[in-house]
Design brief:
alpha+beta; two-stranded antiparallel ribbon; 29% helix; 476 residues; five-stranded mixed sheet; transferase; 9 strands
């Protein structure tokens, strides 16, 4: 349940410059503590991201206090009417001048030697291009994933997670490139702001995860994404630290490129601000329970190994897989997580200014689940749910509602093999699965892996753990 008397849950620490400061007159410490054992993301031997403090300038804008509904933790799966209402309006906030946070010279730095930090451009301080050093910090509590790793399968999942999850130095490397790109882009689009989004920021990334970027352009004039990305492609060809630019004309057009001399790939979109919103929504879920990060990482590695995790080839995107995992964890008899959007709508208001989107989730109290299942039991349950229980032909996966909704005869869901609702725009994020052969292959893989894992209870029987770890560590 959500205790009303609980102290506000601590938003995970961030590095300076990843997002612009909010326009609310408060002091925010994104490293404050939460209830013991509920939201600690500490895993032994891994470094944490540094504390990130925002000291915004005064303004009259503020986030309303969240509505706190009563909630029970023993509900069963529900199947209710699907509401087709779609919210797509996005507000683009204006930049706010904010001085860089203080440095902490006595802290241990785990930085990257690949390139120096870019200069701080005071003419365009939002998002800031000054990056705060990464630090090695001690855990805030003694709670760890070991409490959920009492069997061989669970222990293998923890091992894979520890070896593959994104480190502070990985995030710093992406931020260094983002900051320099913003400075160069501002030579063409003076008011542009560049945001790091996706798995790099939501806490669900691997060391080898690509970096997603959202370029926000203000003004009354509507900017055609293809024209903007074409201009950027010409610009990027003149940059010494960028190579292999490729314009991809998808439903959401992107400019794909790499950091020169490395495997680090970036996907840049224009004004797709829903990506900023769902980044912080997923970050909130990632922090709700210690098991969510390793569970999602293992599922993504499993799906990638079996070639069902590539939307460009007609299978499941990583975002779709994340929502599928969260849906399963929400709909257990004893849920691991609730619907944060339903229970705290003001914290994830789709009309909230982009600049204060990171502020909303800190109002959410800790969630302590009565479900104490091991990681291995949850993973096997996940495979079994989609292999035997979920009705692909009749149901829509909704993390927003924490339940499976019945399909209705609308264009969004009609004749779709897999239906997974985007939590903000409420469209189908699994639309890439449009061939029956691919859909059948996905279902067959869930069933086969479920059968094998049930018999052997060994992660290596469906995923070569050591090979995956070696591949992850070989990326440059």
């Amino acid at each position: 349940m959500y205790p009303r008397s609980a102290a506000p849950r601590g938003w995970p620490p961030y590095s300076n410059g990843l997002y612009p400061p909010p326009t609310v007159p408060r002091y925010y410490d994104y490293n404050h503590k939460s209830l013991a054992g509920v939201n600690s993301s500490y895993v032994p031997r891994l470094q944490r991201l540094p504390p990130y403090e925002w000291k915004p300038t005064p303004s009259t804008s503020r986030v309303p206090p969240p509505y706190t509904p009563a909630m029970t933790n023993g509900r069963k799966r529900q199947y209710d009417e699907y509401s087709p209402h779609v919210v797509k309006r996005q507000r683009l906030g204006s930049p706010v001048t904010c001085p860089p946070p203080p440095c902490f010279p006595n802290q241990m730095v785990a930085g990257s030697s690949r390139s120096p930090l870019p200069r701080f451009d005071r003419a365009h301080p939002t998002p800031q291009s000054h990056f705060h050093p990464q630090m090695l910090t001690l855990p805030e509590s003694s709670n760890s994933l070991q409490a959920y790793a009492k069997d061989k399968l669970s222990d293998q999942m923890v091992e894979l997670f520890e070896a593959c999850q994104q480190q502070a130095c990985d995030l710093k490397r992406k931020e260094v490139c983002r900051a320099q790109l913003q400075l160069d882009i501002q030579r063409v689009y003076a008011g542009a702001r560049l945001y790091l989004t996706g798995s790099s920021m939501n806490g669900l990334g691997c060391r080898s995860s690509d970096a997603d970027l959202c370029l926000v352009l203000k003004g009354k004039r509507r900017n055609d994404p293809i024209n903007v990305l074409s201009a950027l492609q010409r610009l990027f060809k003149s940059l010494s630290y960028v190579e292999r630019t490729q314009l991809i004309r998808a439903k959401v057009p992107i400019l794909r490129f790499r950091e020169k001399g490395s495997d680090l790939q970036f996907d840049l979109n224009v004004n797709n601000t829903v990506g900023i919103r769902n980044t912080f929504l997923l970050r909130s879920y990632a922090d709700a329970d210690l098991r969510i990060r390793p569970m999602i990482l293992v599922v993504k590695k499993w799906a990638r190994h079996h070639q069902i995790n590539d939307a460009s080839k007609g299978t499941l995107s990583s975002y779709t897989l994340v929502l599928m995992v969260l849906h399963y964890l929400q709909t257990l008899k004893e849920p691991v997580v609730p619907s944060l959007q339903r229970d705290y709508p003001e914290c994830f208001n789709p009309f909230m200014d982009i600049d204060i989107v990171p502020e909303g989730p800190k109002h959410i109290p800790p969630y302590k689940s009565t479900n104490q299942s091991s990681l291995g039991d949850l993973f096997r349950g996940f495979l079994r749910y989609y292999a035997t229980d979920f009705r692909w032909d009749k149901q829509v996966i909704s993390v927003r509602e924490a339940r499976a909704l019945p399909k209705i005869n609308s264009q969004e869901w009609r004749n779709k093999y897999i239906c997974v609702e985007e939590p903000f725009e409420r469209n189908n994020v699994a639309r890439a699965v449009h061939e029956k052969a691919k859909f059948d292959a996905i279902k067959a893989q869930f069933a086969e892996s479920c059968r094998i894992l049930q018999e052997r209870k060994d992660l290596n029987s469906i995923l070569p753990v050591r090979a995956v770890i070696n591949k992850e560590s070989s990326r440059k």
